[in-house]
Specification:
TIM Barrel; alpha/beta; 14% strand; three-stranded antiparallel β-sheet; eight-stranded parallel beta barrel; 527 residues; 4 domains; globular; 22 helices
Length: 527
């Protein structure tokens, strides 16, 4: 069985000449002919080189691996039952799915309160995140979930003021935080500010805590999409030079006269800005967590990526020693930025494998009586069934599920519909629901009642899109939980799912479907 596609993908705008006859191990056309202009990745690489490493069109897309991993969340099934009810009276008139409680409190002090067990992990300085932040922040605030401002926002802000190597003002960051706070209701949800190496050097966390009222911060070791630092592309020479002065790796060198000449001549159209990779040590990690608390951070998070198992052990152990609030474990395969395409497909530990390892490590620490921070699983989650399975696989340690591409897609669609409404050019498959946002968005009446007519009119349709997507996920999750007779998130456990294959069972430790309930079956049949 071939798990990967090689040498052609919609992500790199490449395809095989002989699409129906392709070598499975190399991805090349079975007959590579002299005279082909190069439609495949090899061909494009012959004239555009390193540019073909990255998904296209950059800045307008999010991306995810198309690799068919041997085990994923579809290899598990959710178990329902006909008896009992956990978290509510076992009464058919009371144990109804609208009664399922999806609220959650997380953090070491349980002070972060959420309406739904969802987080949106770091969406940073990429163009697509910036262009959709209005919808992301507003929708997350109204839904009562966590949204994370990702890495490099201050460093990429052309209007940021930096003195003596430290940021003292960043209009972009100020705007992102304000957009969340403006729509936050009753203290639900939270905005978390992430920092990588460059951000730490710039003093981004200290600035945001002191000047912008940020109380929750996140350290970043990496993500599931790549094992190198964050990247963006820059099509402006002066901005590329500014970023190099601010300490970023910029390729090719925007201060090299020959490079400048080639850029102006049109030999290439974009510079690449790269972040550095971190060097993790327990002592320095614990010290940094203490520094952030002294600076005024009430909650400290860590996000780690799909590195080798020993690095996951470091993340969990160091987080335990430092006593952080939340650890996000992000499986391989997806990304919202400019991750190298082959890396996204072929690097790292896929979600089910990584999440299973995380469960095993958390259980080991817990059995020793050591502190385990609240865990968030991320890596390809989009729908309520996957959310349920992730919560069950990692129970009782996993408190939330992190999703980035799904919420971003919802915000983008909401924004696009809003533009079409203004232009009076709605697609037929949308127009059949109506021509106004009150008619098209099914949550409009609820939001108008919640906000009032004037405030509702100010609400971006991107935020409505994200809020409505969350509403769908919430109802779907309540229905699944009701069927499993679990009426509060705290009652979800690993027995609420079964593995459909022996391999999935071996990887996860979840019982194979044919072995589930064996002892209970014998007791029932013996009576």
């Amino acid at each position: 069985m071939t798990f990967s596609r090689v040498n052609s993908s919609a992500a790199t705008l490449s395809k095989n000449r002989t699409e129906g006859s392709v070598s499975p191990f190399s991805g090349m056309c079975v007959t590579c002919i002299d005279g082909c202009v190069g439609m495949c990745e090899i061909g494009k690489s012959a004239y555009r080189g390193h540019e073909v490493i990255y998904p296209q069109p950059f800045g307008l897309i999010t991306t995810a691996s198309e690799k068919d991993y041997p085990v994923d969340y579809s290899h598990f099934s959710i178990m329902g039952t006909t008896v009992g009810a956990a978290g509510i009276e076992a009464d058919s008139d009371k144990a109804i799915f609208p009664a399922v409680n999806l609220e959650r409190r997380i953090g070491r002090d349980k002070a972060i309160k959420l309406k739904l067990p969802f987080t949106i992990p770091g969406l940073g300085s990429t163009r697509i995140a910036g262009q959709n932040w209005e919808g992301l922040a507003g929708g997350a605030a109204l839904a009562g979930i966590i949204v994370t401002v990702g890495e490099n926002v201050c460093g990429m802000d052309p209007n940021a003021e930096i003195k003596d190597g430290k940021v003292v003002k960043s209009p972009d960051l100020m705007k992102r935080i304000k957009l969340f706070r403006d729509w936050q209701s009753d203290g639900y949800g939270e905005i978390v500010l992430q920092a990588n190496i460059e951000d730490t050097k710039l003093g981004v966390h200290e600035y945001a805590i002191a000047e912008l009222g940020v109380t929750a911060v996140e350290l970043k070791w990496g993500q599931g999409a790549k094992d190198i630092g964050g990247e963006v592309k820059i099509n402006n020479l002066e901005r590329a030079q500014m970023l190099k002065r601010r300490g970023y790796i910029v390729l090719p060198d925007p201060e090299n006269p020959a490079v400048i000449e080639h850029f102006k001549r049109g030999a290439f159209k974009e510079f690449e800005r790269h972040s550095r990779v971190g060097m993790v040590e327990q002592e320095s990690f614990v010290r940094r967590v203490e520094e952030l608390r002294k600076a005024g951070a009430k909650h400290v998070f860590l996000k780690t990526g799909a590195y080798r198992p020993a690095d996951l052990a470091r993340a969990i152990k160091f987080s335990s020693v430092a006593g952080i609030d939340v650890l996000t474990v992000d499986g391989a395969g997806g990304g919202t930025g400019m991750s190298p395409w082959r890396m996204m497909n072929e690097w790292g530990i896929p979600s089910v494998y990584l999440h299973s390892l995380a469960y095993q490590m958390c259980r080991k620490l817990s059995e020793k009586g050591q502190y385990v921070p609240d865990i968030v699983f991320a890596g390809g989650f989009t729908m309520e069934d996957q959310i349920f399975k992730g919560l069950a696989l990692g129970a009782p340690f996993v408190k939330c599920i992190g999703m980035a591409r799904g919420p971003l897609a919802a915000a983008m669609v909401g924004k696009t519909i809003g533009k079409h409404i203004e232009e009076g050019q709605l697609p037929v498959y949308v127009e059949r629901f109506g021509t106004t946002k009150e008619e098209i968005f099914v949550t409009a009446a609820e939001l108008k009642s919640m906000l009032g007519p004037e405030r509702f009119d100010e609400l971006p349709t991107g935020a409505m899109g994200l809020y409505t997507y969350c509403e769908r996920l919430a109802q779907g999750l309540r229905q699944l939980m009701c069927g499993s007779r679990k009426f509060s998130l705290d009652y979800i456990d690993r027995r609420d799912i079964v593995a459909l294959t022996k391999e999935a069972s071996e990887v996860s430790g979840i019982t194979f479907v044919m072995d589930e309930d064996r002892e209970e079956i014998e007791r029932i049949l013996e009576v």
